[in-house]
Amino acid sequence: MARFAYYGLLALQHRGQETCGAATWDKQLHRFSAPGLVDQVFTESVLEKLPGWVACGAVTAVPEKEVGLIQPVSARTGVRLVLCTNGRVFNYRELAQKYDVPAWSDAQVLAEVLSRKLQQSDPLEAVGELHEEVVGTFSFVAITERGELIAARDPTGLKPLVIGSFGFDYGVIASESCAMDVIGADFKHDIEPGEAYLFTPYSIERKRFAEPNPRYCAFEYVYMARPDSIINGISVYEVRMRIGEKLAEEAAVEGADVVVGVPETAIPFAMAYANRTSTPIHMGFVRTGRRIRSAIKPTQFERLVGVQLKLNPIRRAVAGKKIVIIDDSVVRGTTTKNTVNMLRNRLGVKEVHVRIGSPRLIAPCPFGVEVPARDELIAAHLTDEEVAAVTGADTFCWLSIEGLVEAIGTPREHLCLGCFTGQHIEVAQRGMEFLKELKEAVAG
Predict the structure, then answer these.
(1) Hey, what CATH topology would domain 2-215 get?
(2) d(CA 100, CA 178)
(3) Boundaries of CATH 3.60.20.10 in the chain?
(4) CB under 8 Å to 207, separation ≥6 — which residues?
(5) In angstroms, rounded to a whole number, what is the distance separating the alpha carbons of residues 382 and 392?
(6) Cβ(231)–Cβ(238) under 8 Å?
(7) Starting from the edge strand earliest in sequence, which strands make up the sheet with 162-166, in order?
(8) What are the two backbone dihedrals, phi and then psi, of residue 116, each rounded to the nearest 5 degrees?
(9) CA atoms within 13 A on the CB side of 191
């Protein structure tokens, strides 16, 4: 199963490029994790040391200095287990104090609390008890020393989690359906918000541990997920095509010679925009080296290097033309400015009009998406005209929030749009209040 986990993680590499790890079970637990990309960390010799017929693994966008804190994390205080999670536990320090475990990370504390619950309750009841104590959001997969695999998604469903099968046998869990395609499994459906699954060698159980209160992450459809994935029953590719059509309706550029999409997320946006405006679409950039998601790199230097690797322009496609650049999002604006300057100064592009397939990013994400502080977000402080002036573009427009909601096709009340509106869902507000109280208590 280690090889299945390896290929599944390769398919999910876009969700995090800082660390990765996997664990297996064959009467006992085996675990390996390290900083780096999946194909760098999991050599043949590493895979051979992970025997077993149950496996889980994770990639993360957070650089961890301590190898022991890289997911999957281990819990040893109750029922031994390994756990991979996606989300944020705001009150993990309080939980660590309550259960007398180290407050190393929210993933580690989540694992330790679950392991304690499993000493007293059956696995599905333990998930419900865990949910009652956690302030935050989570999707997780855990393997116990007894060979059980537990998967759960909190009632908001903020973090995606899907289930698939090999033939009639369910038992494949992933953040996105694309991981199942890669390993030859059949995608079945989403794990519903507030739902948990338990897999043993002999049975599968499913239980709703809390009433669903969907608040699906809109940024998944704009940037995080792969276009070949299905999330919350919706094709990411189809959403991105509708986003391009909405951009054309809201901010078409008259008389443009060519449309260029920034690889790779914005390519569907650009295709749909070009089709709707009857403008030729060209391949304007070529990626050099491996795929690097520069928006989630941790330092400014790495982001700039990532952009230079990612965006090498094709001179013949754009030189001397009036072009429309379609991108998925703008965070600080630095990379967009570099791209526009490169097109103008090195390639002699006549006009550059930038269109963004998401609303303005004006607030950081409290749930683990690597959006920087508000002070660093260019859209939080400048008008369209000012952003155009700063980046060197002739015009600069974002997709409206209404346009994004329509493109996703989910009622607005069931979406988390906090990074675009600054108004985060209730659990985030409670979490931030809790963190403020904790900080004041520590200061006192």
Answers:
(1) Glutamine Phosphoribosylpyrophosphate, subunit 1, domain 1 (3.60.20)
(2) 39
(3) 2-215
(4) 124, 127, 128, 195, 196, 198
(5) 14
(6) no
(7) 169-174, 162-166, 186-190
(8) -70, -40
(9) 38
Q: Which residue has the tokens 């749909």?
A: 272
Which two tokens mark 200? 């043993």
**With contact defined as beta carbons under 8 Å apart, do 7 and 42 qualify?**
no
**Fold type of domain 235-421:** Rossmann fold (3.40.50)
- 295-299: long-range pairs with CB below 8 Å, 24+: 295/223, 295/329, 295/331, 295/335, 295/370, 296/16, 296/17, 296/61, 296/370, 297/17, 298/18, 298/63, 298/370
Q: What angle do CA 28, 32, 36 make, to 5 degrees?
A: 165
How do residues 162-198 score in pLDDT, each as one tens digit?
Answer: 999 988 788 899 999 999 999 999 999 999 999 999 9
Amino acid at 276: R
pLDDT tens profile 254-311: 999 999 998 888 999 999 999 999 999 999 888 776 665 555 455 555 555 555 556 7
Comma-separated ranges of CATH 3.40.50.2020 domains in the chain: 235-421
Amino acid at 29: L
